[in-house]
Amino acid sequence: MTGLCDLGVVEAAAAVRAGDVSPVELVEACLERIEAADATINAFIAVAADEALAEARERERLLSSGDDPGPLHGVPIAVKDNIETRAVPTTAGSAILAGHVPDRDAPVVRALRAAGAVVIGKTNLHEFAWGVTTENPHHGATRNPWDAARFVSGSSGGSAAAVASRMVPGALGTDTGGSICLPAAMCGAVGLRPTIGRVSTGGTIPLAWSMDTVGPMARSALDCAAVFDVIATGGRADATAWGRTPSTACGDVAGLTAGIPAGFARSRVQDGVREAFDAAVEVLEACGMRTVDVELADVDAIRSPWLTVMLVEASAYHAGWLRSDPDLYGDDVRTLLEIGAAIRAVDYVQAQRFRSLVRDELLATLDAVDVLLMPTAPFTATPVGARTAEIAPGDAVDVVSDVTRFACLSSAAGLPSLSLPCGFDADGLPIGLQVVGRPCSEDLLCGVGRAYQEATDWHLRAPGDPISAPHDQKGAPLDA
Questions:
Q1: Which stretches of 348-443 are assigned E, i.e. beta strand?
Q2: 178: Cβ–Cβ under 8 A, 6 or more apart, which residues?
Q3: What separation in angstroms does the CA of 459 have from each of 65, 163, 178, 292?
Q4: End-to-end CA separation in angstroms for the chain
Q5: Which of 80, 153, 156, 411 is catalytic?
Q6: What are the pLDDT tens digits along the chain (480 aa)?
Q7: Fewer CB near the last or first residue (10 Å), C or N of the chain?
Q8: Helix (H, G, I), strand (E, B), or coil: what is residue 163?
Q9: 179: annotated active-site residue
């Protein structure tokens, strides 16, 4: 069973199609792994064991009757608990929605099932996705598979931890300001944040409607491309203009040019992060990618306007519950909602205008280069509950505000981004490389990711057992 849990999305789907493994065997292996590991990791809010096994048996019956399996036929997938799933509770990690059982799937979940995937459970998240730690007051904190004393970031922390700890080969997360890429980076997984409008957010409990996205998390760029191809539909308003480009993830970067915002990407980061980022750039250059320094004047100022937009839009959605049931929120989320409700309309409009300026600057830069490269986060996973992170001896930054420094950029501009594991720090904690592209360039980003992963093996490293043990830079357990 352990070997089956090591299969990625594409590998598992191919094994099912070839008859080497059955959907039931895959689901049973994942359920066994969840039972063994989740008491420590706390990645799941709900495990739909009976439903998943019934679905796997149906997948097996279809396969034996000669029906052509879909591209994800029999592959177990976890879904973040703010995405609606029929007959399985969807609570957004909140007390307000306790007991909420949708009667239909969100469009992305319907797409997964239509492609043959098996939904195995709902993953933990920061309450209502409104936070960056996945320290949930109602369900407990999700723990990092590489060191259970560390956080996973958020808000899609449960999905990232489930993938990294081999509980599932793939999962869905949501992203409004780095909530796919950040936990992927902290857990040593791969996360793809799609372009705004490429994937339906219908049936997803919103955080900030103008920036929300749904995207895949897996252990390779190729696996993320496979899931993205299934869920990518284009928003109704955008389908005519953009259409749908399959993510071929060809893995050839020769002739591509990457822009590096050197002053931005290499400043105010931990030494280990900077070293891993520079080494990743060298790998891509060795694969044939050309790199050039670029200047981005306004990007470091985006966090305040981005936060303003998120505060206001979240508070607008929660206005009724905030009046009727304020005590049901965790303290941190209730405080943020109260702050958002007090922001003036003129400040919200100005924040949206600044988002447009930064998007224009990024698009102008991406006219001259194919992608942008930067770290995913300025530091590695901090202890659960920590509110500061040490960038250098005697130099600490605020975890909540600074962890999003790089990852919120693509979210604020509505651009796609991909986070890849690119090394480990001295404490054996994963480090992420972020690749940002033009609108609808998910196929290109996954191709860059595939090229990098064909030249490295960071994504193949797995947390050891006992799963709570910290690991060294090569993935081996450190001595107690």
A1: 371-375, 388-392, 395-398, 417-424, 430-437
A2: 132, 193, 376, 403, 404, 406, 407, 408, 411
A3: 36, 11, 20, 26
A4: 28
A5: 80
A6: 459 999 999 999 999 999 999 999 999 999 999 999 999 999 999 999 999 999 999 999 998 898 877 899 999 999 999 999 999 999 999 999 999 999 999 999 999 999 999 999 999 999 999 999 999 999 999 999 999 999 999 999 999 999 999 999 999 999 999 999 999 999 999 999 999 999 999 999 999 999 999 999 999 999 999 999 999 963 333 332 333 344 445 678 999 999 999 889 999 999 999 999 999 999 999 999 999 999 987 778 899 999 999 999 999 999 999 999 999 999 999 999 999 999 999 999 999 999 999 999 999 999 999 999 999 999 999 999 999 999 999 999 999 999 999 999 999 999 999 999 999 999 999 999 999 999 999 999 999 999 999 999 999 999 986 454 444 433 344 553
A7: C
A8: helix
A9: yes
Apex 124 CA angle, 182 and 37, nearest 5: 95
Buried-state track 55-80, b at ≥16 Cβ within 10 A, e below 16: bbeebbebbeeeeebbbbbbbbbbbb
> Residue 429's closest CA among 34, 43, 152, 155?
152
Read off φ and ψ for residue 441, nearest 5 degrees.
Answer: -105, 25
Q: Is 315 a catalytic residue?
A: no
Contact 80, 156 (CB under 8 A): yes
Check 179, 200, 220, 441 and give the catalytic one. Answer: 179
Alpha-carbon torsion (468, 471, 476, 480), positive or negative: negative
Which residues make Cβ contacts (< 8 Å) with residue 20, sequence separation at least 6? Answer: none
Angle at 117 between CA 234 and CA 243, to 5 degrees: 15
Give the type of residue at 289.
Answer: M
DSSP 216-246: EEESSHHHHHHHHHHHB---TTTHHHH----
Q: Report how far residue 427's alpha carbon sits from residue 272's, in angstroms, rounded to the nearest whole number.
A: 10
pTM of the complete model:
0.93
What gap in Å lies between CA 480 and CA 365, rounded to an integer? 48
Q: Which two tokens stand for residue 442?
A: 């998910």
Rounded to whole angstroms, what are the CA distances from 257 to 319, 329, 451?
Answer: 46, 46, 14
Q: How far apart are CA 155 and CA 129, in angstroms?
A: 5
Tabulate helix, strand, coil % of the chain (nearest 5).
Answer: 40, 20, 40
Whose tokens are 């320094």? That residue is 293
Q: Residue 199 has what DSSP assignment?
A: B
